[in-house]
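Posting here for the record, re: dinuclear copper ion.
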Amino acid sequence: MRKKALWALGLLVVALVLASCAPHATQSTLKPAGPTAQEEKNLFIPVFWIAVGVFVLVEGGIVWIVIRYRHRKGQDRIPKQTHGNTRLEIGWTIAPALLLAAVMVPTVSLIWKLAAPPPPGALHITVEGYQWWWGFQYTDADMQVDYGSTPEPITVADVMVIPAGRTVYLSLSSEGGGAHSSNGIPDYVVIHSFWAPRLFGKQDVVPGRTNHITFSAFAPGTFTGQCAEFCGLEHGRMKFRIVALDQSDWNAWVADQKQPGSSPTSALARQGEQIFLNPLSNDRGSCVACHSVGGTAASGTAAPNLTHFANPNHQCFAGCNWDVFNPDGSPNTTDLAAWLHDPNAVKLGAKMPDYDLSQSEINALMAYLFSLK
Ligand code: CUA
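Prediction output follows.
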């Protein structure tokens, strides 16, 4: 009996230890990469140890009493019956109240601090939650692009690029896919939650209201994040990345974004551009109903903006489920071809329709997309 209990205990310990193994964890709140996440961790650690102390005291007391006063062989008398102990009861009412009050002071003050308006000079970015991908718009006056009509914010999807060290102020909203609307009411306006564990805690993205996150990254790097609120079939694959650049790389990125999508040079890419911009043959539909490419007639807003699809900092596509480039830097045509061939086969529930694209259409479209630097 004792041997069995020891085995069970041993297995439990091993399971707990193994469950904590994640050598390449990219989303650990315990490895903060910016001041917001750092302050959240600084609050979490003392609260965690207070909770551990309470757990040990209470559970330890229970276990001790269970063992100390257990039933023993030949001991048939009823224990002394007692009722109430005013001193103890006052004690275990006051102690937790004091403990919670002590925890509340730093908690509430950090909530206020994180909710404070951003400092002047912060970079303003709107975050739009769609089913199932994230769109980002840079709304500051010096982040507008002008393709010849009216200036509009730099708009990207899946990867948010920021300058390391500068405070970023996010405005989060939930958007429906316009192309899927019926009677003018957009579908798929649901609650998401925006979370990049190494940079900031979760913030709900709620239809009809705008929430905010203020954060920055200590140093250049790539930080992964994901939706943290169940929002439909593809919720678990609604991912994103935040790429923090040093000042000169940031300047170069902004300069790139202010250019229209580069015009394709190869014949195949030009062919792809025509397929992209025009209705597909046999009434199959049209890419530009949902997608836009700055500087062209494509101006759909229901799906990711593809103006700089092949920019080196645009690391991933389709809800960040696939890398745009292979590890050796070559275009990831394998996953992109599969995605264009039948979106739902590789990402069940995706709102991108299957347009029955032929292999030659797919090859041309990929050549076009990879010309958009
Ligand atoms: Cu969006 Cu879960």
